[in-house]
Write a structure and sequence with these properties.
Elements lengths: L1 H25 L2 H21 L5 H23 L6 H20 L1
Helix pairs in contact: 1-2, 1-3, 3-4
Length: 104
Amino acid sequence: MAWISLIMAGIFEMLGVAMINKLHQDRSWKALVLLVLGFGASFAFLAFAMKTLPMGTAYAIWTGIGASGGAILGMLFYNESKDWKRIFFISMVLGAAVGLKLVA
């Protein structure tokens, strides 16, 4: 259950990051509410996961999902670069997260 919670924390982190970008674009109250809810849910799920998982592992995977997910969302929805080098390094971040799960 902790791993599912950690993945949910990463997904909500991605939502929060996407809403920061959306808030910079149009300053809507919906984006602000989703930003606060996204980061709030992210921290709540992370805290739940850290009851079972080691802090270093949980934090590294949470930030990996958030960082790589944010970059992928930027490529999909905000016309950011899709260069093969960028995709390669995103895959390295995700590979490191999988590696941490395997050794934790």
